């Protein structure tokens, strides 16, 4: 199964942010127990790379990607650690080229029609739409999809249980990314069962 097929299958990409590799693994394991086996490990902590590598090594059933990738160097490190996909908050030609050379899907962040057109002309047909709630949400994606008919979107930023179904009802949306599934309070207290329950709730919504 390709990464895009996996995204379409689960419809939801939880964001994993952890200071310790073992915590990242616990989060990913809890998400998988709830039915979400595709995760985006955010490169926002000092040991995020270790977290990604540990998930890849210890949880072969989880498709792990790297998020908040800002440079070509970071993209290459993520690929070397076993990332199955790379996500960026914006479009960077170096990041895109590094991933394309390695044959790894890359989903750059887009916000405007100009961004989407730039991604399309770099050979990409699936993009992150970020921050979705600020960029216009569901109406904006519908408008963009009517113009960029072959582009698929992964809205992230402001997605939650109250609007997940609305986003997923758009044919052009391949999946939604979100941090609501991995609340900082649950992680800090070690309440990974709560993360599993949130994942199960999201899966139920996606199936409607």
Descriptive account of the structure:
By secondary structure, this protein is of the alpha/beta class. The chain has one domain (3-207): Aldolase class I (TIM Barrel). The protein is 47% helix and 15% strand. It has helices spanning 3-10, 21-33, 48-58, 72-80, 93-102, 113-120, 137-147, 164-168, 184-189, 192-207, and strands at residues 12-16, 38-42, 63-67, 86-87, 106-107, 109-110, 126-129, 152-155, 176-178. The strands form three sheets. Strands 3-2-1-9 form a four-stranded parallel β-sheet, with helices on both faces. It has a three-stranded parallel β-sheet with strand order 6-7-8, with helices on one face. It has a two-stranded parallel sheet with strand order 4-5. Helix 3 (48-58) links the parallel strand 2 (38-42) and strand 3. Helix 2 crosses helix 10 and helix 4 packs parallel to helix 5 (93-102). The mean pLDDT is 97.
What does this entry show, briefly?
With 208 residues, the protein is α/β, with parallel strands linked by helices.
What would the keywords be for this entry?
208 residues; alpha/beta; TIM Barrel; four-stranded parallel beta sheet; three-stranded parallel beta sheet; 10 helices; globular
């Amino acid at each position: 199964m390709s990464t895009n097929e996996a995204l379409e299958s689960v419809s939801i990409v939880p964001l994993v942010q952890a200071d310790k590799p073992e915590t990242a693994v616990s989060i990913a394991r809890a998400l998988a127990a709830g039915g979400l086996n595709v995760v985006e490990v955010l490169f926002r902590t000092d040991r995020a790379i270790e977290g990604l590598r540990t998930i890849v090594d210890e949880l072969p059933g989880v498709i792990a990607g790297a998020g908040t990738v800002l440079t070509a160097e970071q993209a290459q490190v993520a690929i070397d650690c076993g990332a199955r996909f790379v996500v960026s908050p914006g479009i960077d030609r170096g990041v895109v080229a590094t991933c394309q050379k390695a044959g790894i899907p890359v989903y750059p962040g887009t916000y405007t029609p100009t961004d989407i057109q730039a991604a399309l002309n770099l050979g990409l047909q699936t993009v992150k739409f970020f921050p979705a709630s600020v960029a216009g949400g569901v109406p904006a994606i519908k408008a963009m999809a009517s113009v960029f008919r072959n582009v698929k979107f992964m809205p992230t930023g402001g997605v939650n249980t109250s609007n997940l179904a609305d986003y997923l009802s758009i044919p052009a949306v391949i999946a939604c990314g979100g941090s609501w599934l991995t609340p900082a309070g649950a992680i800090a207290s070690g309440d990974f069962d709560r993360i599993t329950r949130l994942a199960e709730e999201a899966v139920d919504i996606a199936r409607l």
